Amino acid sequence: MKPRVLSGVHVTGWGAYAPSLVLTNADLERLVETSDEWIVSRTGIRERRIAGPGETTASMAAIAGLRAIATAGLQPEDIDLILVGTLTPDYPLPSAAVLVKEAIGNTKAAAMDLAAACSGFVYGYAMAHAYLSSGLGKHALVVGSETMSRCTDFTDRGTCVLFGDGAGAAVLSASDEPGGTLGMELTTDTAATYSIWIPAGGATRPANEATVAGREHLMRMKGGETFKVAVRRLGSTSLRALEKAGMGLDDVDLVVPHQANIRILEALAKSMSFPMERVFVNIDRYGNTSAASVPIALVEAVAEGRIKQGDRIVLVAFGAGGTAGAVALEWTADPADRLRADAVDPDSISISVPNIEPVNPFPPALEWLLEKVESDAGNGRRPGPDARSTTTISDAAVSGAGRSAAVTPPER
């Protein structure tokens, strides 16, 4: 059967946001029995970003989203659909997407969250593509945003070294021009249903004293099981998306995968006989940011000159519950458009909250990290990343750790 090549939807904008508060491997040595060598050799991670007390999933998503809209040369009101992939929304309801819509000043878009864990952005891409290609809208904003630090158990060496916070976004636009989306594949492998999970907080185990005491609101993971399924599904979905696009691996200029673990990425490349030189990796600077991972990597790949007009790329992810998805596309946007994102001021963006007693959402296990940053600032040392960890997203994209302005409480 001849593959049906998709067309008519392009990536026209992209943007990201990473908190400037950095948690290094050396910092983690204060919390659990580990070392920089142990973490790097097993995961490839050297540091990860942590959202400050004034930052949330929605506030980071709004900044990344506005940067993507600016890059596309659009205004917020041009967006017809807002999708936020996240497993860490600000609230069970309303959705993070609704908060993002309000924060960016859009009045007309449909807005909702997607719960596909680390595959959330890729799933969102596919949903947005279907929406636009059906004629329901012209432009869609797809965001992956996570505050993983707020569901991480910082007493568990197996998981606390892995995760970080951040947001990435893309604008998809309907167009009659050639290129754009060429093939997609989504699937869910139920063999991995409980390989990564959070036991409590849902309808089966609502929050109570016992679930809190048992740390059931924090993430649990079976690393060995996850590794095997991830490698298999990342490979199979990539190949299936390429098949639908009428492409082969030799046609791919760059793979932008979910940054879960360097060993997973190396095993994936080996299993497909694909060179690691054409696999984009930034896990060393951010760790696993779940749904934000692929779009943050995409933004950095463009900024580093790894993606050019006419390049064929694959976006691919695997997540909790066995979700997996891949998109094969031809890049048509001008990489220089990324400079438009610098006009977005993160401090001008706020998330409104209802009239309830405020709480500090920052992980208690990391309170000392805030004190360390304040001490460094008082001694004239620059807080946040050192020269080695400076990102290529943009200077603005890594500013604002602990910004209290990100969430705006009501006047009493």
Count up the domains. 1
Shape: globular
Mean pLDDT: 91
User: Strand arrangement, largest sheet?
Assistant: 1-7-6-4-5
CATH classification class: Alpha Beta
Uncertain runs are: 382-392, 394-405, 408-412
**Beta fraction:** 15-25%
CATH architecture: 3-Layer(aba) Sandwich
Determine the N-to-C terminus distance: 65 Å
Radius of gyration: 20 Å
CATH homologous superfamily classification: Thiolase/Chalcone synthase
Number of helices: 12
| Count of strand segments | 15
What is the CATH T-level topology? Peroxisomal Thiolase, Chain A, domain 1
Quickly list its features.
412 residues, alpha/beta, Peroxisomal Thiolase, Chain A, domain 1, five-stranded mixed sheet, 29% helix, disordered C terminus
Describe this structure in words.
- It is built from twelve helices and 15 strands.
- The chain is an alpha/beta fold.
- It has one domain (9-200, 209-408): Thiolase/Chalcone synthase (Peroxisomal Thiolase, Chain A, domain 1, 3-Layer(aba) Sandwich).
- The strands form five sheets. Strands 1-7-6-4-5 form a five-stranded mixed sheet, sandwiched between helices. The chain has a four-stranded mixed sheet with strand order 8-13-12-11, with helices on both faces. The protein has a two-stranded antiparallel ribbon with strand order 2-3.
- β14, α12 and β15 (407-408) form a beta-alpha-beta unit.
- The longest helix has 23 residues, at 223-245.
- It is globular and about 55 Å long.
- Mean pLDDT is 91; it is low at 382-392, 394-405 and 408-412.
